[in-house]
From TrEMBL:
GO molecular function, one term: 5'-nucleotidase activity
InterPro entries, alphabetized: HAD-like_sf, HAD-SF_hydro_IA, HAD-SF_hydro_IA_YjjG/PynA, HAD_sf, PGP-like_dom2, Pyrimidine_5'-ntase_YjjG
Name assigned to this protein: Noncanonical pyrimidine nucleotidase, YjjG family
Matching PANTHER family: PTHR47478, PYRIMIDINE 5'-NUCLEOTIDASE YJJG
NCBIfam families hit by this protein: HAD-SF-IA-v1 (TIGR01549), YjjG_YfnB (TIGR02254)
Species annotation: Flavobacterium arcticum
Length: 229
């Protein structure tokens, strides 16, 4: 069923438009090779990916700092592999990873097509928990920054999704009304439930077809948005 009353569409960035896992893997391949870290990259990523998600949840919930996030996800992955590495090198790798990550520009299939479809009909915006400098680089290097009128990040808003204040901040920045706006993202907790709890309509980008309540609007491919908006 089409949603007919919307004027503003708010997107999450990582894992929704910007292919985080693919770009992250390329960044790791670059920095681990550059610093001669002798681990099997695929084995490292196998452990790092779920660890990173765990650390982001802790960060989102305000239980760890940005620095603890950046250090801990590396340290835990190396520890599981039984790879001995000193703290200074972990800090160097962490910084280098953040510098290299935005350089890669793979987007999800259909991302540009759906933005082209939506742009004439709606004002488009980003709400991200990512860090300003990194997210700005991702948008520019993947050449999608021009689609968005505003970009709200957790540093600007002073809080992270799913906190209602970040949605409030984003709507004010966009000069948008809650009842004529909608949020689209891949995280059921931060993007979807966070928006719904705030009173903002939401669409779940359910890439892996996870079981969710039938009341949740969802898509499995970005182009499926055309069936709703």
């Amino acid at each position: 069923m089409r949603i007919s009353d919307k004027k503003a569409v708010f997107f999450d960035l990582d894992h929704t438009l910007w292919d985080f896992e693919k770009n992250s893997a390329l960044a790791f391949e670059t920095i681990l090779t550059k610093h001669n870290v002798g681990v099997d990259i695929s084995a490292f990523l196998e452990h790092y990916v779920p660890i990173n998600l765990k650390y982001w949840k802790l960060y989102r919930d305000g239980k760890i700092t940005q620095q603890e996030l950046r250090y801990g996800r590396f340290k835990d992955a190396f520890d599981i592999l039984g790879f001995t590495i000193n703290n200074n090198l972990i800090d160097v790798l962490s910084d280098d990873y953040i510098k290299h990550l935005p350089m890669y520009n793979y987007l999800y299939e259909g991302a540009v097509d759906i933005l082209e479809y939506l742009k004439p009909k709606y004002s488009l915006h980003i709400i991200t928990n990512g860090f300003h400098e990194v997210q700005d680089g991702k948008l520019k290097n993947s050449n999608i920054h021009h689609y968005f009128e505003t970009v709200t990040n957790s540093e600007l808003a002073g809080c992270k999704k799913p906190h209602p204040d970040i949605f409030e901040y984003a709507l004010k920045a966009a000069n948008a009304q809650k009842h004529t706006s909608i949020m689209i993202g891949d995280c059921i907790e931060a993007d979807v439930q966070g928006a719904l709890d705030y009173g903002l309509d939401a669409i779940y980008f359910n890439e892996f077809n996870k079981q969710v309540h039938t009341s949740v609007k969802q898509i499995n491919h970005l182009l499926d948005i055309k069936n709703l908006l």
